C-alpha cells in the first residue's frame, strides 16, 4: 500500500513564527507533490505543488522536496491566526491504464496563537 | 478559476434508500474523483474516472457505484444507504498529464444516514 505520512499534530506556533510541516511518502515513482489547506468544515484548497528537488517559494509559503529522502515539507513564514487549519500533503501514484491518482496524508493540524 | 460544484451541501437519508450525489466541473478536466473524509481516517478514494464512461475503483469502492455520461459530470451512487456511509463526500477534478496534476475540490456534501 503506497502511503503518505504526516505528523497529525496539533502543531502550535505563535503569531509571526515559522511553521514547519513535514511529510514522507513511500512510492519512489511519485513525481508530483501537493500541499492543501483545509479549514474546519470546508473542502481542501490547493496551496502549492512541487515537482523538482529543492525549494519553491510562493509568498509566505515555501515547499521543499528531497526525493532521495522521500521527504516533502511546507514552511509558513510570519504565521498568522488565519493560517490555523489542517494541512494535507499528497503525492501522485501511477495506476493501470496510464492514469494517476493522488494519495493523501491524514493531515497536520496547525494552530497559530495570537 | 476552476469551479467544481456538488448538488447538495447537506443531505439526510434513511437506511436502505438509494442516494445520488452529483458533481459538475466547468474546466474541461479529464479526471474526476470521489472521496469520503472521516475524522482520523483522512481522505479516502472511492472511485475515479479519467474519461467519459470510464471508471476505476479506488481504495474503498464497496457499497458505491459511479456514472460518468458526460465529461463535466460525475455521479456517486449509494445503492442502499447504510449508517456507516454517514460521512463528508468530496468531489475533485484535474487535468490529465504525464505528471500528476493538481486536483480541485468541490465544497463537499455532508451525508447523514439515519
Itemize the secondary structure elements and their pairings.
The complex is a heterodimer of chains A (114) and B (114).
Chain A: E1 4-6, E2 11-14, E3 19-25, E4 33-38, E5 45-50, E6 54-58, E7 61-66, E8 71-76, E9 85-94, E10 100-104, E11 108-113
Parallel strand pairs in A: 2-11
Antiparallel strand pairs in A: 1-3, 3-8, 4-5, 4-9, 6-7, 7-8, 9-10, 9-11
Chain B: E1 4-6, E2 10-13, E3 19-25, E4 31-38, E5 42-49, E6 56-57, E7 64-70, E8 73-78, E9 87-94, E10 104-105, E11 109-113
Q: Give helix % range of chain A.
A: under 10%
The greatest interface between two protein chains, and residues involved on each side, is: A-B, 27 and 23 residues
Which segments of chain B are poorly predicted (pLDDT under 50) over 5 or more consecutive residues? none
Q: Report the sheet with the most strands of chain B, covering strand number, pairing sense and barrel closure.
A: 7 strands, mixed
How are helices and strands ordered from N to C of chain A? Answer: EEEEEEEEEEE
Approximately what portion of the residues of chain B adopt beta-strand conformation?
over 45%
What is the CA-atom radius of gyration of chain B, in angstroms? 13 Å
Order of helices and strands of chain B: EEEEEEEEEEE
Distance between the termini of chain B: 37 Å
Major sheet details of chain A:
6 strands, mixed
Summarize the structure.
The complex is a heterodimer of chains A (114) and B (114). Chain A is an all-beta fold and 114 residues long.
Any descriptors?
heterodimer, A: 114 residues, mainly beta, six-stranded mixed sheet, five-stranded antiparallel sheet, 11 strands, 0% helix, globular, B: 114 residues, seven-stranded mixed sheet, four-stranded antiparallel sheet
Amino acid at each position: 500500500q503506497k502511503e503518505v505520512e504526516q505528523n497529525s499534530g496539533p502543531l502550535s506556533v505563535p503569531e509571526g513564527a515559522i511553521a514547519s510541516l513535514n511529510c514522507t511518502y513511500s512510492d519512489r515513482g511519485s513525481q508530483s507533490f501537493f500541499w492543501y489547506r483545509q479549514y474546519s468544515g470546508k473542502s481542501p484548497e490547493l496551496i502549492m505543488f512541487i515537482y523538482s528537488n529543492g525549494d519553491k517559494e510562493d509568498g509566505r509559503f515555501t515547499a521543499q522536496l528531497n526525493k532521495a529522502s522521500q521527504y516533502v515539507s511546507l514552511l509558513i513564514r510570519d504565521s498568522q491566526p488565519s493560517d490555523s487549519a489542517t494541512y494535507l500533503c499528497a503525492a501522485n501514484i501511477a495506476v493501470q491504464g496510464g492514469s494517476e491518482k493522488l494519495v493523501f496524508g491524514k493531515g497536520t493540524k496547525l494552530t497559530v496563537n495570537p | 478559476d476552476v469551479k467544481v460544484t456538488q448538488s447538495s451541501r447537506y443531505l439526510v437519508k434513511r437506511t436502505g434508500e438509494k442516494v445520488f450525489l452529483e458533481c459538475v466541473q466547468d474546466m474541461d478536466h479529464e479526471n474526476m474523483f470521489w472521496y469520503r473524509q472521516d475524522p482520523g481516517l483522512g481522505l479516502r478514494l472511492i472511485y475515479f474516472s479519467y474519461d467519459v464512461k470510464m471508471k476505476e475503483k479506488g481504495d474503498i469502492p464497496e457499497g458505491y457505484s459511479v456514472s460518468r455520461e458526460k465529461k463535466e459530470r460525475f455521479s456517486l451512487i449509494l445503492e442502499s444507504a447504510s449508517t456507516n456511509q454517514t460521512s463528508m463526500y468530496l468531489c475533485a477534478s484535474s487535468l490529465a498529464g504525464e505528471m500528476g496534476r493538481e486536483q480541485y475540490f468541490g465544497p463537499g456534501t455532508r451525508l447523514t444516514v439515519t
